[in-house]
């Protein structure tokens, strides 16, 4: 499917005098992962709340699963699942009861509900703890249960608002695997995260929200190419080869200890080919050739002036 699962145009929202969203536009193709990044207070949760019909926008149009969020609220709600920062899990109920409750809310018949609940407990590796109260679950188990509850109605679009905040690396990886499986099944994921590596791992497209506007959007690699710092590192066999290469590549920085040159490059195939051709013309050969791209942290720093999304945390 190539259609847009989410279409946002001119979306604006302010609280009192504070402009949180100042007219933002983006599309999310069906079956892809879109990640919205931004410092604390940038308006990520506000965006999720509007897109999931929990909050009204001041201006703009939003279509989710082809339905206008203002005029066709019910149809939007039927198509989406939301896993929030504050989990919907009821601590006093067991894992199975929590899922059963969702199945009841979604009005599944008793036979289907039983099948769906057992299937989800198995898929999320919660069978053994299914009969235990959710209050006894670890953070990772609770997040898994929360996501499992979101999946009860088979939503085609899932909003994950900081799904792995506070999880240990292993639980984060489990969540990532689940997200990838969902996408493989054709589900569209709208993800907000504080972890840039998470966006890097999961997102097909990333957008950075800053001071009410989207200051950048594209694939993680597109964004990395936009910031300075990408370079090619060439390592040579001896000082003579290093000297010769340095004469050819006058814009390169020398690393005498490492017998290496650092050549600024956007990392694209065209410039890499040009670089190799230049070396070839002068019969210089390198022992090692590696391309270094900035990571999303560098992108974030360049675009918003803070080096991680957590910088402004109170
Ligand atoms: N209901 C509200 N009334 C007034 N101000 C609000 C309300 N909800 C959010 N805000 C303000 O709007 C701004 C954006 O908040 P939002 O929660 O959307 O940011 P965020 O990017 O999700 O931040 P975080 O990463 O901390 O979750 C903040 O300055 C917040 O204080």
TrEMBL record:
Topology term for the membrane: Peripheral membrane protein
Keywords for the protein's UniProt record, in alphabetical order: Antibiotic resistance, ATP-binding, Cell membrane, Membrane, Nucleotide-binding, Translocase, Transport
Compartment(s) where it occurs, according to its Swiss-Prot or TrEMBL record: Cell membrane
Parts forming coiled coils: none
Domain ABC transporter, first and last residues per copy: 6-236
Keyword ATP-binding: yes
Predominant place of localization: membrane
UniProt GO MF annotations: ATP binding; ATP hydrolysis activity
GO biological process: daunorubicin transport; doxorubicin transport; response to antibiotic
GO cellular component assignments: plasma membrane
Record bears the keyword Membrane: yes
SMART domains: AAA
Superkingdom of this protein's organism: Bacteria
Family (UniProt): Belongs to the ABC transporter superfamily. Drug exporter-1 (DrugE1) (TC 3.A.1.105) family.
Descriptive protein name: ABC-2 type transport system ATP-binding protein
């Amino acid at each position: 499917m190539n259609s847009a699962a989410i279409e946002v145009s001119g979306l604006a929202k302010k609280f009192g005098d504070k402009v949180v969203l100042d007219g933002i536009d983006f599309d999310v193709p069906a079956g892809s992962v879109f990640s919205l990044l931004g410092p604390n207070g940038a308006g990520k949760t506000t965006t999720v709340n509007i897109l999931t019909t929990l909050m009204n926008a001041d201006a703009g149009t939003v279509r989710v699963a082809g339905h206008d969020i203002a005029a066709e609220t019910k149809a939007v709600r039927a198509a989406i699942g939301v896993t929030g920062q504050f989990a919907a899990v009821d601590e006093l109920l067991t894992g199975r009861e929590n899922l059963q409750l969702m199945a009841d809310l979604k009005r599944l018949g008793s036979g289907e509900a039983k099948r769906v609940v057992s299937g989800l407990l198995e898929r999320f590796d919660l069978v053994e703890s299914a009969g235990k109260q959710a209050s006894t679950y670890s953070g990772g188990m609770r997040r898994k249960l929360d996501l499992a509850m979101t999946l009860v109605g088979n939503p085609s679009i899932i909003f994950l608002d900081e799904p792995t905040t506070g999880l240990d690396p292993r639980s984060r990886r489990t969540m990532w695997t689940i997200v990838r499986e969902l996408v493989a099944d054709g589900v569209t994921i709208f993800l907000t995260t504080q972890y840039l590596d998470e966006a890097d791992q999961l997102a097909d497209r990333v957008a950075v929200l800053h001071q009410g506007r989207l200051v950048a959007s594209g694939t993680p690699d597109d964004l990395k190419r936009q910031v300075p710092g990408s370079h090619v590192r060439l390592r040579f066999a001896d000082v003579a080869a290093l000297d010769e290469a340095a004469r050819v590549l006058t814009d390169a920085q020398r690393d005498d200890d490492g017998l290496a040159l650092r050549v600024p490059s956007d990392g694209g195939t065209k410039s890499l080919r040009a670089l190799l051709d230049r070396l070839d013309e002068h019969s210089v050969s390198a022992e090692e050739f590696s391309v270094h791209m900035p990571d999303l942290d560098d992108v974030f720093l360049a675009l918003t002036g803070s080096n991680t999304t957590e910088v402004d945390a109170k």
